[in-house]
Amino acid sequence: MLGQLNYWAALPEIVILASASLILLVDLFVPETRRHVSYWLTQLALLVAICVTLTTLRLDTITGYHGMVVDDMLADFLRIACFIAVSLMLFYSRDYMIARGLFRGDVFVLTLFALLGMQVMITGNNFLTLYIGLELMSLSLYALVAAQRDHPRGAEASMKYFVLGALASGMLLYGLSMIYGTTGSLDLQTVARAIYARHESTLLLTFGLVFIVSGLAFKLAVVPYHMWVPDVYDGAPTSMTVLIGTAPKIAAFAMTLRILSGAMQGAAFDWQGMLIVLCVLSMVLGNLIAIAQVNLKRMLAYSTIANMGYMLLGFLTANRYGFSAAMFYTVSYALTSLASFGMIMLLSRQGFESDRLDDFKGLNQRSPWWAFIMLLVMFSLAGLPPTLGFYAKFMVIESAINEGFVWLAVIAVVTSLIGAFYYLRVVKLMYFDEPRETAPIAVRGDTWIALSANGLLLLILGVLPQQLMGLCAIALTQSNFP
């Protein structure tokens, strides 16, 4: 029985769960003036989780809990990416949360529970496990969006997110039930073998696949399941926006990969056609609508939609190189998105959200260093060399061309040129317009170091991308896929 449970496969998740429970208890006895204790305990928990994940790093694949959880290179790599993303989010948003009454134990605990859900999505080897992880993450994020209790826009955004998220979860669950009815199993490998053995798709299997892709598309925030993204990004506190826009995207990528490549690879012809539609609509509409935005958070929301469309180019190939390119793109986007929202919080202050394009006017005159970091962020989002975003787009477009999707690659290039307009508009405002205010930018030492390193990493990995590319390729090669 112990061998079948194999707690080692879920050790990082156990650490996060124990830490969340401990911080919840400790916070009861911490006075309001010493909330930094809960904050640093959360950061310590993330550091311990990273160290534990590194100790479980292995080239072989192990399963636990009767095959419900899998620990492979893919899981370990994406776990660490999520831990780092959440830790950086907490560093960047410390002053922001203090000024808005969000520096509370319940926020830290909900963040850890959302992270726990992401880890379950990453390591899930069974439809039931994946769904439980998705719901744990989603419910925590719904509450975090409305964490600012006296902020009606946050409550409205949370309600929209909850209603649409519940609908998407229901569609996903309905699709999974159809797959279970067709194959008689919830285990990913058993489902994969059953689909391969049929040699052709049945009507029930195809309908199930449609509902599954619809549910996954909502979590990835691609058109036409994107309606929640601009309102949630804009209405939520920026500290929660950066959380929603980074680590959950990595977890959603992992879940999509586990289901489409791990379980549904035998039906690739069916889901490829669906992804083509989602991909084209997201790239076109995301970039076109972003041009009209004057709110930077809403612009980045539509940018997210477009970027997830580019990421799906890698999935369309239905091979390991394409999946590796999509994984590289997802991690690169999360790293860039962290820096972009970090800059918004850096310029924000009590009673003022620096989330409009005009707020970045003349930033170079106020602080040449932070203007340079924001320039790197915008260049990376636009896919311009020598930043990381250039190689991310290059890889997914190359993977599409290698599989004969040349017309899709052309659309991707054209829409990238459209996207470059609104990204470079921010650069123009920073360097060529007069500042609206001249007050110096006050930054904590740890935030200065983390955000500067984040921005410079976009440049360093853009010049030397081979290490990250290699990690993505190795993680997929040594993973638990048929």
Could you tell me the strand content as a percent range?
A: under 5%
Biggest pleated-sheet summary: 2 strands, antiparallel
Distance between the termini: 26 Å
Placed side by side, the strands forming the largest sheet appear as: 1-2
Question: What would you call the shape?
Answer: globular
Question: What do these coordinates show?
Answer:
The protein has 482 residues and is an all-alpha fold. The protein has one domain (2-477). It has helices spanning 2-5, 11-28, 36-56, 73-92, 94-99, 105-123, 127-145, 152-183, 188-198, 203-220, 228-235, 238-244, 247-263, 268-291, 296-316, 320-347, 363-366, 368-382, 388-402, 406-432, 445-463, 466-477, and strands spanning 62-64, 69-71. A two-stranded antiparallel sheet has the order 1-2. A hairpin with a 4-residue loop joins strand 1 (62-64) and strand 2. The two termini are 26 Å apart.
